[in-house]
Amino acid sequence: NYLYSINYMHHGAAKTWYGVPGADALRFEEVFQREVPDLFKKDPRLLFKICTMVSPRTLTQQGVRVNRTLQHPGEFIVTYPQAYHGGFSH
Which of 46, 78, 85, 88 has its CA 20 to 30 A from that of 68? Predict the structure, then answer.
């Protein structure tokens, strides 16, 4: 069951977002598990938690498409079903 995600920024510093399109989700999951195998042994549901990021460079080097954008106050970010996303505030 996959859903859309929408994030609105009310105020504050910009936020950098990275996103992997749903078409690359399986490849992303394979690379992610290969990059942090010990974390997956401890918690097989790691992909569903917002606690770990793999470098976008590592992902692209292994064939996963990664998009990057900056979000500013007053802007929305919409993530499509089965797409992975993560980011950080500046």
Answer: 46
Angle ∠(79,90,28) on CA atoms, nearest 5:
40
Separation of alpha carbons 22 and 15, rounded Å: 22
> Distance between CA atoms of 48 and 86, rounded to whole angstroms?
11
pLDDT (0 to 100) of residue 47: 86
User: Which DSSP symbol is given to 48?
Assistant: G
User: 24: which DSSP letter?
Assistant: G
- pTM beyond 0.90: the answer is no
Do 54 and 31 touch, CB atoms closer than 8 A? yes
